[in-house]
Recover the amino acids of this structure.
RNA sequence: GUGCCCAUAGCUCAGCUGGAUAGAGCAACGGAUUUCUAAUCCGUAGGUCGAAGGUUCGAGUCCUUCUGGGCAUGCCA
């Protein structure tokens, strides 16, 4: 199916040719949404841009193009406005036809990717033996949303949770496990007990060098394959993963793989050997480094792939990971949803990958930080750090109070189900409706707000559509023609047509908030329609058309929210 | 020191490739409901887009400088 702006662009391009305008090489006419409803539905500034290049009067050029064009059946005669905008208002017939085709389309008007890619998305990546805190929601929710969108657009996506399951902290954990572990506490809440043990050992090791040394020894034994230590490590990882998975399940986020750092342990040495062999790895101050002398920004920023003590670090691990993803999964794109502080690291990794002769397309999808009340990044050690699970539970509890109040007759199970959809949805929406680059200060009230531009607002629009169909007796048959007369109907139809324009845009710059914004506008438009246009009390064609609009709104809201990872319920 | 990001209404934020009179939500005030679910709708009020220059027919958006924040800058990830 063809989107409305595509139809207009085609027609405008033809008009330019008809008007004998000189079109410079590479010039493409652009159609965008009207910035204001009184300008029509869509607008183009192409005449102004072209006039500038051709040194002509923009309004005259616009007029000539409009006069030369053939607009019948597509839109009303375009109007020239301001310095030379061409404003379009599509005809009711076209809009009606288009609405029906979106309604019938299995993808609600969202075009499929012209060239599907195999995309690896690397996101969330928590450390084991530590609880996920509020800072993890950005990578986790954005990554999950991009996964859903990319799949919806027809790409082959492989999600991989590159968990931090191998590192120096295991020396202390193993030492503490052997000495201080409370098995009962471990059974009750494994991560909490591991954190308790870790903190205790950490404090002890700081004060006592002998303890520190014992921790190092435990780590060395682990790395050398000591059976007991390996078993402790394995159990730690398993327990942590159980707990992480239960949170992901609750959030309806799934990964195809959980290949953490430990998985690549045996592959690190060979990577470094190969780098040395190819002349890319050089010794420097006892370490093996990759230098990027041809890249000005990185000229003085080598990547260390083997430390002076012979150990490897995360640059090595990431290179091994890339190798695996290319050779085993045939990745042609890799998206890293990781915070902005790691920019330099990824620049180095990407440059190294190019030097090694791989042409996989890699993107570091950065995001800002969640700050504490002191405007500093929330760190695990900070006292005011907020655990993710606590936020989720609080959100669901606050939602429950409202759900019970508004739906006293529903069963406990239904109330629980709705409360979870609302609470978890609100937290996800709070994150995803924000531009990913901006830093923001964590606020319970903002994160858990249910009023205004929030998930419950969108969910409520959906619930209103479902309520209408619940009241209908018998089966609904949707018409194969519709009429759009009232302003509310037309506005809604135009807004619905934009779903297919919005979804692909998300991946241009990896911006889930574009979808969130669109869905908010759709819900607003629907609420307006709902006030203005009674459905069940209307009759004939009007009623049938409105029912269809409601059903289409319902589908788009449900699908759109699903792309954000937010679930809808029929009541709330 | 160098590099990256950010600064928009009282508060929290949109504003994609420069486009028309800069928009939402929250908070404030005034209205609408014996409802197709008011978690809603309509209205009022609120701005020299951090500062100063520059490019352009046109700048919140691009360039330069400055101020104020955040982050990164070789052996933690």
């Amino acid at each position: 199916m063809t989107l409305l702006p595509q139809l207009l662009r085609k027609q405008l391009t033809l008009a330019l040719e008809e008007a004998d305008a000189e079109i410079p090489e590479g010039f493409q006419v652009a159609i965008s949404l009207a910035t204001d409803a009184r300008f029509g539905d869509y607008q183009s500034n192409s005449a102004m841009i072209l006039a500038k290049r051709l040194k002509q009067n923009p309004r005259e050029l616009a007029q000539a193009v409009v006069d030369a064009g053939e607009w019948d059946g597509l839109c009303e005669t375009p109007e020239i406005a301001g310095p030379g905008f061409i404003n379009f208002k599509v005809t009711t017939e076209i809009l009606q036809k288009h609405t029906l085709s979106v309604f019938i389309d299995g993808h609600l008007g969202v075009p499929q990717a012209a060239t599907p890619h195999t995309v690896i998305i690397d996101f969330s990546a928590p450390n084991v033996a530590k609880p996920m805190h509020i800072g993890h929601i950005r990578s986790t929710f954005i990554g999950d949303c991009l996964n859903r969108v990319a799949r919806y657009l027809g790409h082959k996506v492989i999600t991989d949770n590159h968990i931090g399951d191998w590192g120096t902290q295991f020396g202390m954990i193993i030492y503490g496990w052997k000495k201080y572990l409370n098995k009962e506490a471990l059974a009750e809440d494994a991560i909490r007990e591991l954190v308790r043990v870790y903190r205790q050992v950490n404090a002890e090791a700081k004060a006592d060098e002998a303890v520190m040394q014992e921790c190092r020894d435990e780590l060395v034994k682990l790395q050398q394959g000591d059976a007991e230590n390996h078993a402790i490590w394995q159990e730690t990882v398993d327990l942590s993963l159980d707990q992480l998975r239960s949170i992901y399940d609750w959030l309806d986020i799934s990964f195809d793989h959980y290949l953490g750092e430990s998985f690549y342990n045996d592959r690190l040495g060979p990577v470094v050997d190969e780098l040395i062999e190819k002349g890319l790895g050089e010794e420097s101050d006892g370490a093996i480094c990759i230098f990027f002398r041809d890249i000005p920004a990185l000229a003085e920023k080598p990547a260390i792939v083997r430390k002076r003590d012979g150990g490897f670090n995360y640059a090595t691990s990431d290179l091994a990971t890339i190798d695996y993803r290319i050779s085993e999964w045939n990745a042609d794109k890799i998206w890293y949803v990781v915070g902005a502080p790691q920019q330099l690291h990824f620049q180095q990794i990407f440059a190294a990958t190019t030097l090694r002769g791989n042409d996989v397309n890699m993107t570091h999808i950065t995001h800002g930080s969640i700050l504490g009340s002191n405007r500093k990044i929330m760190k695990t050690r900070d006292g005011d750090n907020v655990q993710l699970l606590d936020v989720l539970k609080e959100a669901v509890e606050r939602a429950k109070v409202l759900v019970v109040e508004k739906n006293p007759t529903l069963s406990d199970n239904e109330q629980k189900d709705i409360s979870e959809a609302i609470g978890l949805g609100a937290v996800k929406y709070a994150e995803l409706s924000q531009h990913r680059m901006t830093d923001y200060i964590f606020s319970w009230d903002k994160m858990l707000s249910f009023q205004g531009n929030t998930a419950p607002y969108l969910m409520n629009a959906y619930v209103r559509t479902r309520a209408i169909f619940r009241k209908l007796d018998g089966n609904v048959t949707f018409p194969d023609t519709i009429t759009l007369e009232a302003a509310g109907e037309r506005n809604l139809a135009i807004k619905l047509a934009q779903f297919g324009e919005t979804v692909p845009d998300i991946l241009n710059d990896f911006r889930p908030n574009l979808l969130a914004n669109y869905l908010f506008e759709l819900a607003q438009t629907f609420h307006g329609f709902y006030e203005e246009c009674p459905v069940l009390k209307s009759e004939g064609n009007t009623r049938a058309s409105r029912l269809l609009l409601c059903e289409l709104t319902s589908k788009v809201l449900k699908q759109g929210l699903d792309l954000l990872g937010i679930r809808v319920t029929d009541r709330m």
Summary: Chain A has a mean pLDDT of 93.
